[in-house]
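Support case: adenosine-5'-triphosphate complex. Customer-provided input:
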Amino acid sequence: MVVEIEGVSLHLAHPDELPVTWVGQDEVMRQLLAAWLVIDPQDLPMNPRLLGKPGVGKTTLAYAAAKRLGREVYIQQATVDTRPEDLLVTPVIEGEARLRYVASPLVTAMLRGGIAILDEGNRMSEKSWASLAPLLDNRRYVESIVTGIKIKAHPLFRMVATMNDDASTFDLPEYIHSRLQPQILIDFPERLEELAILRENLPFGDDYVLNYVTDFLQQAHASEERYTVRDGINIARFAMKLAHEADTPVRGETVRVAITQTLGEEALRYVARS
Ligand SMILES: Nc1ncnc2c1ncn2[C@@H]1O[C@H](COP(=O)(O)OP(=O)(O)OP(=O)(O)O)[C@@H](O)[C@H]1O
Ligand SMILES: [Mg+2]
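Agent response - structure generated as follows:
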């Protein structure tokens, strides 16, 4: 799709389609949807940031919430070398000395009234964040240096940034932090929720394995270990494959092998002794 702004043709990105369902943890879902609400003609939506350990479900929550609003969702993956133009408009050479201007997923969401997920936002430098400052306050526009145009966000445009609370990331400057509010913290789920999440992601999962893995994860959470449901999904998946390959039912030994090969020997200390 092509949209024309101030005489410049912008080629839009495609929305993302993911098969995800959010299980349990209603409170963080409610907070995210509330942040996006507009409750008065003079009100503005907020730009929340989702914070949590790698693999706790940040991207899944952002996507599932956006889908609940029934709108197009665009995921913009941030990395250390995301440049300002990658967030806005990039020029691409097309044929003989012709340029095509390609809108980022973020800008496409702005134009289409969709929802942008700026994923792993804290991997991105301050310089790139600076190009979004006017979008994140009451101005709600960006300025593309490459094309020289100003792009206004559609009133239905919403955005959310996800951020890992690990060390391999940038500390954002205060003026960016203050524009990415509220902060929504995703914590480890309770036992029953964690089991339900494993079931949702592995519907063919063996009860014995899913319960074994849930107990393991809960033990690890209790010790503030960084293992998450994503590790649990990988462990359960591998254990079931191993058993399938050997044509035997899954036993504790098989799950312990899967734990070791997913997280290393030291993870076995969270396995209950039987
Ligand atoms: N509440 C939940 N409901 C359904 N699935 C969940 C839930 N929480 C986590 N998951 C599952 O856990 C896995 C990891 O989730 P996700 O990729 O969203 O984590 P993340 O926090 O974005 O991780 P990263 O920081 O590495 O990007 C996915 O397979 C996801 O489906
Ligand atoms: Mg993620």
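The first strand starts at residue 2 and ends at 5.

Case will auto-close in a few days if no follow-up is received.
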